[in-house]
Write a structure and sequence with these properties.
- Helix 5 crosses helix 12, helix 6 packs across helix 7 and helix 9 crosses helix 11.
- It contains 13 helices and 18 strands.
- The two termini are 30 Å apart.
- A hairpin with a 5-residue loop joins strand 4 and strand 5.
- The strands form five sheets. A five-stranded mixed beta sheet has the order 3-2-1-9-10, with helices on both faces. The protein has a five-stranded mixed beta sheet with strand order 13-12-11-17-18, sandwiched between helices.
- By secondary structure, the protein is an alpha+beta fold.
- Bound molecules: adenosine-5'-diphosphate (ADP) and magnesium ion (MG).
- Adenosine-5'-diphosphate binds next to helix 6 and helix 7.
- Magnesium ion (MG) binds next to loops.
Length: 344
């Protein structure tokens, strides 16, 4: 009786712990946290100065006493302690009392090692979860976009996140094959930084590069090409400078990372068993993750693969939406949860 009363009061959470963004879904409330996966700490004391959006604003703007950390790299935990701090802070922002957390469903990339899974599980437990379940990100986003994941048909999901692009073929509640490349949105922003360094001796910040990518970056020629200005520091005379840039040149700068993603999709199609490949031909490929928002990426993939490409309605939230559905309908999605070998 006491236990069921506790269950009634406790909150179940779905967490998309992404390299770029962390989202938290609270059962019965919806998505309550959607913040960059960044924390800012004071150098000597490691006191938390800011998390999420506020910490992102500090990126590249910190003075000597503060440093910013992105605790995840390539979809997995790179800094255990920082991830734990970040998760706790976000759960606080979600207005959930850590003593009252019931179940947490967390997404992890396909192909992560047992040790990496353990790290995610431990982090969620230390954040207060009484029960932790892991689910593959591709599976969660398929559920999030509303695919019939338990049907004997193949679906291909291409998720372009911050650190990686993951391509997965799903059928009958499982992942048939997956391909992952360590190229995603960060690499695109990095390519823009390199472009200005190499061709203009101009140093631009990470945040400016990302803003440029999102506003004028593209994967195919635009009907109307865009011009804008960018500010940076001249590497020769050290003076701040503004130059005019065009969407054409940014597209060129993005060419390498985009090609890597396109090639990975093609490779994945080649690896797909024929019956499932023919399903994908019928149904098309679904693009998720923030990178799916790059202008013309869908057109570029369509041109290169001859497949229909559908950008998810909400590419940045479909993973956490999937976690939410798993929490809302536990029996229906029991089968998609990842089994973990117990180490103790
Ligand atoms: P992760 O799951 O790794 O946290 P997300 O799915 O949240 O990643 O996607 C974040 C990435 O998407 C970032 O690199 C961000 O710059 C990129 N992104 C977001 N919006 C756009 C946009 N409009 N155009 C291009 N890239 C975008
Ligand atoms: Mg993601």
């Amino acid at each position: 009786m006491a236990l069921s009363f506790l269950n009634f009061l406790s909150s179940d959470l779905g967490i998309d712990l992404g390299t770029a963004n962390t989202l938290i879904y609270v059962k019965g409330k919806g998505i309550v946290v959607n913040q960059p996966s960044i924390i800012a700490l004071e150098d000597n004391s490691d006191r938390i100065m800011a998390v999420g959006q506020e910490a992102r604003q500090m990126l590249g703007r910190t003075h000597q006493g503060i440093h910013t950390i992105r605790p995840l790299k390539d979809g997995v935990i790179a800094d255990f302690e920082a991830t734990e701090i970040m998760m706790r802070e976000f759960i606080k922002k979600a207005n959930v009392n850590r003593m009252m957390i019931g179940r947490i469903v967390v997404c992890v990339p396909s192909g992560i090692t047992e040790v990496e899974k353990r790290a995610v599980r431990d982090t969620a437990e230390r954040a207060g979860a009484r029960e932790v379940d892991l689910v593959a990100e591709a599976m969660a986003s398929a559920i999030g976009v509303g695919l019939e994941i338990d049907a004997p048909v193949g679906n291909m999901i291409v998720d372009i996140g911050g650190g990686t692009s993951e391509i997965a073929v799903i059928s009958l509640n499982g992942i048939v094959n997956h391909t992952s490349v360590r190229v995603g949105g960060d690499e695109m922003s990095h390519a823009i930084i390199q472009h200005f360094k190499k061709n203009f001796n101009l140093l631009i910040g990470e945040k400016s590069a990302e803003d440029i990518k999102c506003t004028i970056g593209s994967a195919v020629a635009l009907e109307e090409e865009i011009k804008t200005e960018i500010k940076g520091r001249d590497l020769i005379d050290g003076i701040p400078k503004t130059i005019e840039i065009t969407s054409q040149e940014i597209r060129e700068a993005l060419n390498d990372p985009i090609n890597t993603i396109v090639e990975a999709v093609k490779l994945s199609l080649e690896r797909t068993p024929p019956e499932l490949a023919s399903d994908i031909l019928d149904r098309g490929i679904i693009l998720t993750g923030g990178g799916a928002l790059l202008k013309g990426l869908d057109i570029r993939l369509r041109e290169e693969t001859s497949m229909a490409i559908h950008v998810a309605e909400d590419p940045l939230t479909c993973v956490v939406d999937g976690c939410g559905k798993i929490l809302d309908h536990p029996e229906q999605y029991e089968k998609v949860l990842l089994k973990q070998k117990r180490s103790n």
